[in-house]
Design brief:
Organism: Phytohabitans kaempferiae
Order of helices and strands: EHEEEHEEHEHHH
Low-confidence stretches: none
Number of helices: 6
InterPro entries: Pept_tRNA_hydro, Pept_tRNA_hydro_CS, Pept_tRNA_hydro_sf
Catalytic activity: an N-acyl-L-alpha-aminoacyl-tRNA + H2O = an N-acyl-L-amino acid + a tRNA + H(+)
Largest sheet: 7 strands, mixed
EC number: 3.1.1.29
Subunit structure: Monomer.
């Protein structure tokens, strides 16, 4: 049987959240969907929009998903999809915003803590494991004394938006590399780079 990957873009559903920092996972999922020419539609067994395709001819099958629960409940749909498609935890890739990385940094890693990220916390709990791949999209720390919870639910600044399309594209490249060539290759290729490199 073909190897399959589940690529999950994390975010909040609803138009008011579309441009939020917290929704960068959705942005990356939408870009990947465009690259592989699939339209995401409601899944019959999970509260998520899902599409299936391949990132490279003859490459592994990819199930692309955007959970339609709020961020803190993302794990339920992810676990339901993993079960439905029989995808092991090690082949699940979560794309998410990361406060602990500076803006413009995109990194891949396997497992580890959730860093206070409610979407990851929900996934780890529902999957019963932390050993899935994370593609971390750095958004940096909030300025001054702004509450991180407010910061992640605010839109990218106009200065950040100048780089955003390029960075979402890079994050999609990282996901593609993980799927087609493995996490280590993706780490070697992308983990040391910042904006504009």
């Amino acid at each position: 049987m073909d190897e399959r990957f589940l690529v999950v873009g994390l975010g909040n559903p609803g138009r008011e959240y579309t441009g939020n920092r917290h929704n960068v996972g959705f942005m990356v999922a939408d870009l990947i969907a465009g690259r592989i020419g699939v339209r995401l539609g409601r899944h019959k067994r999970a509260v998520a929009e899902v599409g299936e395709g391949r990132l490279a001819p003859g490459g592994p099958q990819v199930v692309l998903a955007k959970p339609l629960t709020y961020m803190n409940l993302s794990g339920g749909p992810v676990a339901a999809l993993a079960q439905f498609y029989k995808i092991p935890v090690g082949n699940i890739i979560a794309v998410h915003d990361e406060l602990d990385l500076g803006y413009g940094t995109v990194r891949a890693k396997v497992g580890g803590g959730e860093g206070g990220h409610n979407g990851l916390r929900s996934m780890s709990k529902s999957l019963g494991s932390k050993d899935y791949v994370r593609v971390r999209f750095g958004i940096g720390r909030p300025p001054g004394r702004q509450d991180p919870a407010d910061f992640v639910l605010s839109d990218f600044s106009s200065a950040e938006r100048k780089e955003l399309e390029f960075l979402v594209d890079r994050a999609a490249d990282v996901v593609e590399t993980v799927v087609t060539r493995g996490v280590e290759v993706a780490q070697n290729a992308y983990n040391a780079r910042g904006v504009g490199e």
